[in-house]
Structures are given as C-alpha cells and as structure tokens.
Amino acid sequence: MTANTIPLTAVPGPKPLPLIGNLRYLRPDTHRALVRAREEYGDLVHFQVNNRHLYFAAHPEDVKYILVDNNRNYHKGRGIQKAKPLLGEGLLTSEDDFWRRQRRLAQPAFHRQQIASLADTMTTSTAVLIDRWQPLARSGATLNVAEEMMGLTLDIVTKALFSTALTPEEIHEVGASMAPLLRHTIQRTQAVFDFIEKLPLPSNRRSKQLGMRLDQIVYRIIEARRQSGVEHADLLGMLMAARDEETGESMTDVHLRDEVMTLFLAGHETTALLLSWTWALLSWHPDVRRRAQEEVDQVLGDRTPTAEDVTRLPYLGMILSESLRLYPPAWAIPRRPLAEDEIRGYRIPAGCTVLVSPYVTHRHPDFWENPEGFDPERFTSKAVKDRHRFAYFPFGGGPRICIGNNFALMEATLVVAMILQRYEINLIPGHAVEAEVAFTLRPKNGVPVSLKAR
Ligand code: HEM
C-alpha cells in the first residue's frame, strides 16, 4: 500500500514516559494490559518500547491483513532472531525463499495421514504416565500436572522425531538437556541487553555444552541413517526422505539439525500448556468434564484410542478449542514490516514491531459474547462457520501457520481421552491458577492437583 500523510503520533495509545516509554503500562501482565489497551484506545494502539515503535492490531480483519493478505511485507519480530544459536535456520526463524523451500520439504511429514502414524507413539508414552500415576492416586498425593504434561510432551516429540534410534538413557539425556536449553533460549529472546548472552557466565557456558551434546546425538543419528540407507517412519526419517519437487534437492545435515531443534522447541511446550490449561478448566467446570467423560466412555470404553478416534470425540475437540481460545499458548505473534504499510488508514513505518495477539482477539467483544466465560459450545461447526475466520487463530495464519497443528490436536485429544478414562483431576483447593506471559502463556506457580481413580 502507498504511504499516506497521517503522522506517526496519530495512532492512539498511552503517553510514553521519558526513557521507559510505555513499559510501565505494559508490565508485568502484558496480556491483560493489551486487553485494556484495546478497550481504552481501540483496535490499533501505538506503544513505545525500548525506543522502538510497537503497533498492536486487535481486529480480525487486520490480523488477516498482516498474516495473510500482505504477509510478504512482514518478517518475524526481532526477538526470535536471538533463538538462532539454538535453532539456526529452522522453520521458526528462517525467512523468504529459504523458509519457503524448507516448508515445502517439511510439509508432507505433517500431513494428517503421516501424523496418524505417530498415534501409537503418543498413546504408548501416555500409558506409561498413567501407570506411574497409580500410587499417587492411591495415596492422594499432590502433583504439578503442568510439569507432568511438559515431561510427557517432550517424551512424545523425542520419540516422534527419532523413534527407536535412541536408548532410554539417551531419551532421558535429550529431555534433561533440552529443558534448560529451551529455557535459556527463551530468556535470551526476551533479554533487553544483547551483550549478556556473550558474557562467559555459567549459564551461557552450560547452554553451549548442552547444545554441543545434543548436536552430537542428532548428527550421530543422521549419520547412522545415511550409512544404513534404511528409511524410518518417524519425523526425522520423513524429513530426510523429503525431496524438493522443483529441484530434487534434499536437506543437508545442518538443515536437518536446525529443523530437529526447532521441532523440539515448537513441538512440546505449547502442547504441554494446552493440556495444563485444559486440566485447570475441566476442574473448574465439572459439568463439562462429566460430558467429556461420557463421550470418552461411550466412544472408547476401556480401549486405547487410535488416530481414527480423534474425529469420533467431537466434544473433546470443542473443549480443546475453547481452552486454546482462553489460554492460547502462543499468546502474541510479532512481526516486522519490511516496507512502510497502512493499517486502518494509519501509517505503519518500516522496521517497527507490529503485534497481533490471539489472547486479545479471542476476547474481542464484537466477536465473542461473554468473552471470559468458558463455553465449548462456541465451537460447534455452525458457530465456527458464522464467525470471522480470524477472530480465532491459536495456530497463527497464512503461510506461516503452525505446521504442527494437526500433530498438537491429535496428541492433546489422545492424552486427554486416555487420562479421562482413568482419572479425575482436581485442582488443590485454594490454589489460584493465574496466567503469566513469557514467550508463551503459562500458569504461574504451576497447576497442583490431586488424582482420583475412576
Ligand atoms: C497447542 C500447541 C501449539 C500451538 C498453540 C502452536 C502455535 C504456533 C503458532 C501461533 C505459530 C506461528 C508463529 C508465527 O506465525 O510467528 C507456530 C509455528 C510453528 N509451530 Fe506450532 N504450535 C503448537 C504445536 C506445535 C507442534 C506440536 C509442532 C511440531 C511438532 C509445532 C511446530 C511449529 C513450527 C515448526 C512452526 C513454524 C512454522 C513456519 O513458520 O513455517 N507447533 N506454532
């Protein structure tokens, strides 16, 4: 779009203070502050953060414009670049032609039919967890279900990537290395001062060591597979077998390593958070939980669910959708316009940050009645059809939409179904589960629960 004459300051927003800009307005609960900003200033709000301009767009039409219609004018935000030491040029961090090629190569591995072949991996890991919980249910012990879900989804994504290539000890080692490494990477994306990551601090040194060890493991598996020539049906095997339709090229070892690290990062914490919020919501809403249990009992009885069962559990699907509406793990999606743009008649300068937020748009009162209320009925097919497509975008949208959305939804459905078959999960009374935002939207202080065997 062409530039117009409206000055930058014309976009409404809170008055920035000297030096700190709008930090005080936005911190600590940035997600709630953005909900308030939309109420106070409207669908496009201007902030100043660290001497940079930030434009926050809350209307579904503008979300669509940024993520879909004019997506070629937008790169990822600055923060994600700081994850490059871990993720290299993987799908989350790369841009333009290189990203397009990698996405083309990776896409077939994430098709619904391919993902279906991973259902066994998902249910086997969940069965182990369910058995481990038995004594805890008997003794009435408290457990942090958020931590449990994090461990489970990490185990699942590790096995989905490498299947039997790792010994149980190596799976443990990958898990134990990955968790602190991801934490460190996320802290890095949020650090105000870039030089800190270059200092010889123990945390930086440890991350480097863990990263090198993981690289060793990943490169060893790739090498062994190249030598043996045997194709494997796991995600790594599918990525190794992928050929570019146009050029016939496949991924190099370094590209494969970058995608593996990216899938670790993108593929486990988000799904663990979806599950954690869902357990909190089901405990707060026993009527919804009862209906979910009935569906699971009716469709599955005692048997282990399969990929085909996912569509036979529509009410579970509606619950997960509503959970992702209220607590979208990827609560904010930042972008950087390459060229000047125009949104709602306002001039948006090149190089600033443009932010869209599932958390805020999922509460937009023009599109959601009683936005804070939990109601899975919002996701009947008719209700979905009648709503603006971008009033709801927990997986983003446009060409950079989450490649793992089917993976995540199948995993979450299977895990919730299997746990509902065996246990009732109840929050410990008196513990308020509140959201805090970092890179993702997490339950502050975990989700402590007790288990009751069914
Ligand atoms: C509930 C779970 C999940 C949520 C809420 C979620 C959310 C998102 C969102 C919003 C994006 C777009 C980011 C942007 O446009 O800047 C994204 C991208 C991505 N996600 Fe997910 N995700 C989830 C699970 C997964 C899983 C299970 C995997 C892999 C196994 C995965 C892999 C990826 C990758 C590789 C990208 C980058 C895609 C690209 O740019 O081509 N995600 N995810």
Structure description:
The chain is an alpha+beta fold and 454 residues long. It has a domain at 1-87 and 334-370. The chain has helices at 23-26, 30-41, 60-69, 84-87, 96-106, 112-116, 119-139, 145-162, 168-190, 202-228, 235-241, 253-284, 286-300, 314-326, 358-361, 381-386, 405-422, and strands at residues 44-49, 52-57, 74-76, 142-144, 333-337, 341-343, 346-348, 353-356, 423-427, 434-437, 441-444, 448-453. It has a five-stranded mixed β-sheet with strand order 1-2-8-5-3, sandwiched between helices. It has a three-stranded antiparallel β-sheet with strand order 4-12-9. It has a two-stranded antiparallel sheet with strand order 6-7. Helix 7 runs antiparallel to helix 8 and helix 7 (119-139) packs parallel to helix 17 (405-422). The termini are far apart. The mean pLDDT is 91. Protoporphyrin IX containing FE (HEM) is lined by residues 76, 91-92, 103, 157, 262-263, 266-267, 270-271, 274, 329-330, 333, 394-396, 400, 402-404, 407-408.
